[in-house]
Specification:
single chain, mainly alpha
Amino acid sequence: MPVRAIFWRVEAPPAVTAPPAATVPPSRHPAALAVAIFRAWRPYRLRGYVTGLVAGVLAGGIVAPLVTTTLTLLGALGGFIDDSRVPWAEILWTLTFALVMPFAGALAYARWQPRDLRDAAASYLWLAQEAEARWRSTTGRATVPRDEAGMREFLQTTAPTPENAGERFGMWLALLDIAQARAAVAEMPRETPSERFGHASATWLTAFVAGDTTAPGFDDLETLAHEIDDPDERREALATVGLQRARAALDAGGDWRAPLAAVRPRLYTAPDGIYARFVWRPAFRQLLIACVSGIAVYWIAWFLLEPYYRWPAEALRWAYAPPR
């Protein structure tokens, strides 16, 4: 099953007709673990953004003015006087804030988290990344459907084969169509140890979402995982067992981080950089866009309205620079 599918929020647009989805408790929903991770990230995201704001103010409001003032004094001593009306010092302060704030905020958000949460989320994201790569290889499509319309379009236009049964299973389960998900599981091949594990894991997940207690146990899943000869496939299978244990722990109100965090050492360096791709970069991009947008409005107002408040602006500049 494409693990990334549990990030999706399925919303049926009016043009898509669908049978009534099964009633699934929130803790057993395919997206429950993703929701738990996002909720666990929330306070650290806020703390990271506040840290970035403080760092940006310190860098752009204290360090940068000290640097520009020192350079101005040195220039004045050397006989250099900048008589242009362009506020170069203020522009430098602004650029400093615009770069430091998103960088420090995103870095604090990505790094300033408990170790068990970082390890659990890294294991989860690595499994999602591997599943998406396998999706592209199996289906020949560049992207995984992110909404109900896309999922149903894939299911309607894809000829059912044993090779794509796992991908079809993931779509049906994301749509909460348990009957169709079970039908796809029944079509999954079971000739190799890896295929037998994939079938057993999909059987367990379908039963878990449906509330069925006849699914294979975790010990059975681990036994099947250890039978896989390929080390990379065996590593992913064992990580998948940890993912399923985390689902069960979340449903029972227990510690869902521990099973996924325990998987992280088995992955060695595979998830390295996963936080930079999925956590730091999106946060940095969002903060940078916000900063640039706010700064653009500020400087547009500065140059358009400068004639109307020239004297107050000059007074502020004199506060930071020596008289000329």
